Amino acid sequence: MDKLADFWKNNQQRLATILSMLLVVCMMMVFVDTIFFIMENTNPISSPNQTKMIKANVIPSETINFSELNLFGAKGKEGLSKRIDAPSTRLALDLLGVFKSGKVRDSSAVVAQKGNDGKLYRIGERLPGDAILDSVYENFILIKRGSRLEKLMFSEGNFSTSIKNVRDRQDIAPIQSEVINNKQITENMILNESNEIKENSAQLANSPKEVLLELINPRDDKVTINPSEAFARIGINLVEENNTKGYKLDSADKTLVQAGLKNGDVIMSVNGIALGEAAMDAAALAQALAQKRARIEIKRGTKRLFLTVPIP
């Protein structure tokens, strides 16, 4: 007994330290067990039977394809132009052409007073008759007179007199080839370069309508056999290079420049029919004449432009 007392006295400090460490370890174990107990109760493990019941009660949601709902309108359709209900203007004006740009403010139209040459006007500019060009659409424009909006549309009657002399000079023969029926395509020339629009804003000696009709209408019966020869006479040659096939403008002919074409432009298609094959080229020309409207695709560098012009 005396030895035990002596041992306690000699090792009292060491024994106290060891006991303290044991107590700390026990407290940590209790703390960890408590944490695991709480976690198991908050996230109970589902039994296989419960899992099956949950799956049986789940109703699969219907998949919705938002791209098919056309929440913001259908692509490629100008629904707005169909909803516009404005009275026709009584001003003595003729609409000769429309030029639509990706930017609305850069769109323009060729308008002429009856009996006069056409002139290019941009949106916001003043037209003859104290009217302002308000907006441009595929087959008409809206002009503003005071607070009133009026509509100016293409008129087929406007072409009969102005084109008669052109046809007489060129001795155009009628096309005898079969006309291919296709839906009427009415699109507009997209001009994203405002500088190009300004270059065409000067008053034209001949309207773009007359110039393009000279290109579209056949000049003789040979055009139905080999259109490339007819185009070559006015400086437009058949070309096929770098995946590009069509008729390239290789001259600075004044008539072609007045139509908005530039040296190096390539005419790719007419009314959606690709050019470069004699049979298809003749069919494209025949179709344009039959539909009374030609849509011409032009490649200028890396850009593609589209020009639409009515035909009498």
UniProtKB/TrEMBL annotation:
<feature type="transmembrane region" description="Helical">
    <location>
        <begin position="15"/>
        <end position="39"/>
    </location>
</feature>
<keyword id="KW-0997">Cell inner membrane</keyword>
<dbReference type="InterPro" id="IPR024961">
    <property type="entry name" value="T2SS_GspC_N"/>
</dbReference>
<keyword id="KW-1133">Transmembrane helix</keyword>
<dbReference type="InterPro" id="IPR001478">
    <property type="entry name" value="PDZ"/>
</dbReference>
<dbReference type="InterPro" id="IPR036034">
    <property type="entry name" value="PDZ_sf"/>
</dbReference>
<keyword id="KW-1003">Cell membrane</keyword>
<feature type="domain" description="PDZ">
    <location>
        <begin position="222"/>
        <end position="302"/>
    </location>
</feature>
<protein>
    <recommendedName>
        <fullName>PDZ domain-containing protein</fullName>
    </recommendedName>
</protein>
<keyword id="KW-0813">Transport</keyword>
<dbReference type="Pfam" id="PF11356">
    <property type="entry name" value="T2SSC"/>
</dbReference>
<dbReference type="GO" id="GO:0015031">
    <property type="term" value="P:protein transport"/>
</dbReference>
<dbReference type="GO" id="GO:0005886">
    <property type="term" value="C:plasma membrane"/>
</dbReference>
<keyword id="KW-0653">Protein transport</keyword>
<keyword id="KW-0812">Transmembrane</keyword>
<keyword id="KW-0472">Membrane</keyword>
